[in-house]
Amino acid sequence: MTRAWRIATVTDAARARISVARLAAACGVPTVARTRLAAALSGQLRQCLTKGGTWLLTVESGEGTEGGPGELHVVVVPAPDGAAGERTPWTTSVPCPEPGRLSDPCPVPEETAALSEGLLGADEDTSVVLEELAAQEDLVAFHREELHQTNQGVLALHAELDAAGRAQREAFAAERRARTEAENARRRLTFLADASAALTASLNHDEILRRLPELLVPRYADGVDVWLFDHEDGRPLPADHPGAAVQAARTGRPQYAADHPGNLPGVEDRPPSVLAPDRPLLCVPLLTPRRAPLGVLTLSPQGERWDPDDAVMLIELARRAGIALDNARRFEHNRDIAETLQRALLTELPSAPGVGLAARYLPATHGLNIGGDWYDAFLQRDGSLVTVIGDVTGHGLHAAVMMSQLRTALRAYAVDGDSPGRLLTRLHGYLRHLQPDLFATAVIARFHPDDRTLTWAAAGHPPPVLRLPDGEVRTLDAKPGAMLGIPLSQEIPDHTERLTPGSTLALYTDGLVERRSQGIDPGIERLGSALASFDRAELDTDLEDAADRVLQPLLSDSERDDDVCLLLCHLRD
Q1: What is the pLDDT of residue 504?
Q2: HSE on the CB side for 239, CA within 13 Å?
Q3: Which residue among 113, 297, 520, 558 is least enclosed by CB atoms within 10 Å?
Q4: Rounded Cα–Cα distance for residues 303 and 280 (Å)
Q5: 258 — phi, psi (to 5°)?
Q6: Looking only at Cα atoms, what is the longest distance across the chain?
Q7: Which pLDDT score is estimated for 506?
Q8: Residue 103 CA to chain centroid, in angstroms?
């Protein structure tokens, strides 16, 4: 359906505009779209009148595509006979819900009043549009306020998220710091425990001094110096040492010498040392448990200053090192006393007709395992030679004293001329009465000068080893008695052996043949092999040298953690 108007004057344009607006209203075009159409058409018509000539305005309705709403098409072109010249057509379209209404007649009267009424109707549409615009403005203002509030909320949320992120980062940093501090504390405690175990594991004074720098350099110190006092009354002798070390020795308190304060817990700050002006020095006294000074440990840091926690750990390590040194000194002192007493109590071997004697006593080099082993040899009234070797349980001064008492008691019993078995039986009763909690082992061998008979008895001791003149070796392992001092009565039997000149009897303690990883039997076999390696002439001429040569191969793999006694008895022609 099409409607058309010829426009040559302003009045024509007004009537056409009014007619198009009424047609659009009749076709159900919404007010806003209708107003937009009227405004656009008015502007185009003004341009046409300005250009002059006659113009043709057509309005055509059509169905929408694919079942959509219809459209109202408005076209302005020059009239074919209007002398308007060639112009590009102007066209526009608006939605048209009721395109069929375009056929309804809606003529515009010629009177001027009708034109005015039409213009007023256009103003009504404009008023409606303006009201809708006002509502839209209110809605826009409302949404703008909502958007502002949303933006404020987003900004606040971002601020909260940023604060939460900072708090989380700070928490992570604090956790890392705490984890690092805990790891450092664990590392220090582990080092302190390991270092303390290494220092206290030894009772050797020199070994402790050697281990201290090995433990500290370069892990916790760049350099270590240990100043020990050589004194008798507890006061250090003058020496060329840093003033801070001397002050630490005098006061018994740690000192820190540097050109800057150390701020170390429990440490006094002092000026830098003249002997080492470019190095900070931490001087820690080495004290005994009774707070007596043993020396001073001086350390220089790897960097420019000490970490306070490291300094606390080093001061504690120095305290433990002082205790370890004090224990080592006490141990060595007691060990020297026990060894001196032990050697003083050992017998000077007698000269016996027809029998050569050689003895060796070696104290333990590790631990206080001295004072329990002994040997003895003496002549009886009938000219017989009695040889003894024994081992008292326990070590130290107490064992040495008990050994001397057993030796004295044995010599007293031997005056009666008892046999070796009888002597051991009497010693057993004596030890049970004297020291119920102390035990001993022993072997007694008696050589009779007339009939060349060996009589021997053993009580819980390793068996004697006999080398025959032809080099054959035998272990005299006849049934021995039990250990001396055990809580039971026993009669220890005698055993006899015919000897020929050139025979050699070896009496020994377990320190010579026993090894923790092997037991005692392999050691006895090695002793027999060592005795078999000699020529008879060597034993006849130099028994002392033979004793040394027996010890050498047997002790080459020994840690010497026990006393060693060896007594060789060689029967001459």
Answers
A1: 95
A2: 18
A3: 113
A4: 9
A5: -165, 170
A6: 183
A7: 96
A8: 99
pLDDT at 52: 85
Cα–Cα distances in Å, from 248 out to 21, 125, 230, 234, 282? 112, 106, 16, 14, 10
Q: Residue 375 and residue 368: Cα distance in Å, rounded?
A: 19
CB 513 within 8 Å of CB 461: no
- Please list, in sequence order, all residues whose beta carbon lies within 8 angstroms of the beta carbon of residue 381, skipping any fewer than 6 positions away: 415, 417
Taking the CA of residue 374 as centre, how many other CA atoms within 13 Å lie in the half-sphere pointing to its CB? Answer: 32
Tell me, what DSSP letter sits at residue 99? G
Contacts 24+ apart (CB under 8 A), 191-194: 191/219, 191/220, 191/313, 192/313, 192/316, 192/317, 192/320
Q: Give the C-alpha separation, 303 to 221, whole Å.
A: 9
Q: Which pair of tokens denotes residue 397?
A: 């001064």
Torsion of the alpha carbons at 244, 249, 251 and 252, rounded to the nearest 10: 110
Length of the chain: 573
Do 484 and 459 form a contact (C-beta atoms < 8 A)?
yes
What's the pLDDT tens digit per position in 439-498?
Answer: 999 999 999 877 889 999 999 999 999 999 999 999 999 989 999 999 999 999 999 999
What is the tens place of the pLDDT at every residue in 315-348? 999 999 999 999 888 887 777 776 676 666 677 8
Q: Which residues of the chain have pLDDT under 50?
A: 232-237
For residue 420, give every residue at least 6 positions away whose Cβ sits within 8 Å of its Cβ, in sequence order, or none: 386, 444, 445, 446, 455, 456, 457, 494
CA dist., res. 346 & res. 311, Å (int): 52
Q: What are phi and psi of 325, to 5 degrees?
A: -65, -40
- Give residue 232's pLDDT: 46
**How many angstroms separate the Cα of 82 from the Cα of each of 12, 183, 246?**
14, 101, 127
Sheet containing strand 281-287, edge to edge, reads 223-228, 293-300, 281-287, 255-257, 268-270
C-alpha 372/C-alpha 341 separation (Å) is: 11
Whether 459 contacts 428, CB under 8 Å: yes
The β-bridge partners of 7 are: 55
Closest CA to 392 of 405, 383, 382: 405
Helix 308-345 vs helix 397-414: angle between axes, to the nearest 10 degrees? 10
Rounded Cα distance between 495 and 491, Å, is 13
